[in-house]
Write a structure and sequence with these properties.
Blueprint lengths: L22 H17 L18 H16 L3 H6 L1 E8 L6 E3 H8 L12 E9 L5 E10 L3 E12 L2 E10 L4 H15 L2
Parallel strand pairs: 1-6
Antiparallel strand pairs: 1-2, 3-4, 4-5, 5-6
Length: 192
């Protein structure tokens, strides 16, 4: 079952054990926001309507991520790449895989020619909204028939009237007790 949380941690109780490692980052962002407002005299930009961000819940952002994964699973190239921000990037599991969205689309196009490009099924997800509501970040646990348990993390921005993926990072979790062996394999493949 997927778990969606806003950054208010209302369900944490007195122990606050569910605080993420990003809590300090959120505290710093909040302090920076207040400092900026104090220094700037609390000036507000003109409200032309172009840059308004509606109040968003983590469930709305989760729906974007679910659609992103479903688009890959059903080989819907237009919908999949439509979820990226104009300057979005995808970082794959290989150290060389830093893909600006246009390059990633060119690389992935053959995969979208079949019934399914790839399938990653979300198992757990945590979503956090930055103050101001125009930026969100997340991490998720995914299952893949090819790779087993994987991780996805990234940043979404409010752009073109909706939430777009600015950065998506796909990674393999490596258990600590085998990390040394994995590092040696990586070092060995780098020298080939």
């Amino acid at each position: 079952m997927l778990e969606h949380r806003n950054n208010n941690h209302a369900d944490c109780g007195a122990s606050r054990k569910c605080l993420s490692p990003l809590t300090n980052m959120k505290d710093h962002l909040l302090a920076l926001t207040f400092t900026t407002l104090a220094i700037g005299g609390c000036a507000t930009p003109s409200n032309s309507g172009k840059h308004l961000v509606p109040k968003t819940t983590s469930l709305e952002i989760a729906a974007v991520l679910d659609s992103f994964h479903d688009a890959a699973a059903t080989a819907d190239e237009t919908r999949y790449f439509g979820h990226f921000a104009a300057d979005g990037v995808f970082l794959g599991t290989d150290a060389t895989e830093y893909w600006p969205v246009a390059d990633f689309r060119a690389f992935a196009q053959p995969y979208f020619g079949g019934e399914s490009a790839w399938v990653y099924v979300p198992q757990e997800r945590h979503i956090y909204l930055a103050p101001g509501g125009a930026v969100a970040w997340f991490y998720e646990k995914l299952l893949s028939d090819s790779y087993g348990e994987t991780r996805g993390s990234g940043i979404l921005v409010w752009e073109r009237g909706g939430w777009r993926i600015s950065q998506y990072v796909l990674s393999f979790p490596v258990p600590n007790h085998v990390a040394g062996a994995v590092v040696e394999l990586i070092k060995g493949s780098a020298s080939e």
